[in-house]
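Provenance

Sequences were taken from public entries as deposited. Structures were produced by running a predictor on each sequence independently, with no templates supplied. The record for Rhodopsin domain-containing protein from Blastomyces parvus is shown for reference.
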Amino acid sequence: MVETIQPRAIALVCTFQAITFIFVGLRLYSRRIFRDFGWDDVLILIAFLLSIVHAVGEYAMIKYDFLGYHVWDVPPTTMEFRATGKLFTFIAGMSYNPPLSLIRASITLFLLRVAESKRTIRISLYLIFAANLLQFVVFFVVELCQCLPVKYFWDFERMDLAAQQRAGADKNGMKDGKLVTGGKCINKPRFYVGAAIVYIILDFWLLCLPIILLWNLNIPRRRKTTAVIVLSMGGVTAFLATTRLVIMKKQWEAPPGSDYTYTSTSGISVAEMNVGIWTAAAPALNHLFARLFPRIWKRYGHKSSSRSPGPDEQLADDTIGGHPVNGAKRSRGMGPTGGGPVMPIITSGISLGTLGRGRSTQDRPPNDNSGEDLSLFGFDENQSDSQADGASIIARGGRSVSTLSSHQGYVKPASVEP
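Predicted structure for Rhodopsin domain-containing protein:
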């Protein structure tokens, strides 16, 4: 019986792609509900579509190159068959870096929305964004033109044979002591190793920043740890990239006649890309899960005080800016960027944060320099485990209340804007 690990590699490709479809679908659904669709979502959507192209290319490459089989079990093939396999290899290679670059860009834009007042962090994020853009342009051009003409990458056998026949070369393709070829290629192993090292450095760089950003904030350690774990999924991407690099380097350094087809490298590259998309999509799902599973979320994610609101937790006037306050409920789709008036909400024991993009610097009270929009993570930076200190309120039309602070049985307006 022929030994093979090809089904395992194909299952890995299909499984990771299916999970990513769920992640991206939930993220887009969350953005639709809260009307908070931004450029980071656009980048993730494009990255997901390109990841499908990459997965298709990897799947076809696995089948055409008989990856997962021992080299002595690979059947004879025609020149056209091998050229088709190399074409899919080219497609998989061209669609590898763009999604990863878009994922880094999306995470960077997301963190820029969070780190509003952290100047050092913001400078580092801008540097990452610039470095990521630069490497994308450079490596995309090099990847495209690694062989000239470009077609030589997948059709080199036919082009070499045609060139040798025109030159009158011998049966080994030699003429005047030189090998006649139909094109030229760069040193592919060196290029792939160099590019992979740059990818890994950028991944680790981007991994450290959110951890530093969140760990220095004045929020409960439990929530801080949860947010760091979610964002640290990017470390898995860096680990997979490193593993892929080590495996590929061993394959390139293997002596002639080695069992180079018995590998699952293709599955690793798909896993690396999809885990990166999960990392970028996960923080945006906090609000969705809090809305769909409020009891579970309150118990395991955002604990609040169990006390009931007292009789004093009322305002003398039951309207602000012409909108009802007491008993008001946020209707579907209402948020800072949605249409229609946004009614203020009074809550006790739990801080909702501003829905969607959260508080902007313009919406904060004059003495609030916290800077970080942690409602993007699903919690307020001033909220404690036992009892929330306040609820962020947004109101449009007439007079607006930026923040309401609840403390010991009463609610007082923290800032009223004319």
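The longest strand covers residues 400-407.
Residues 304-418 form one domain.
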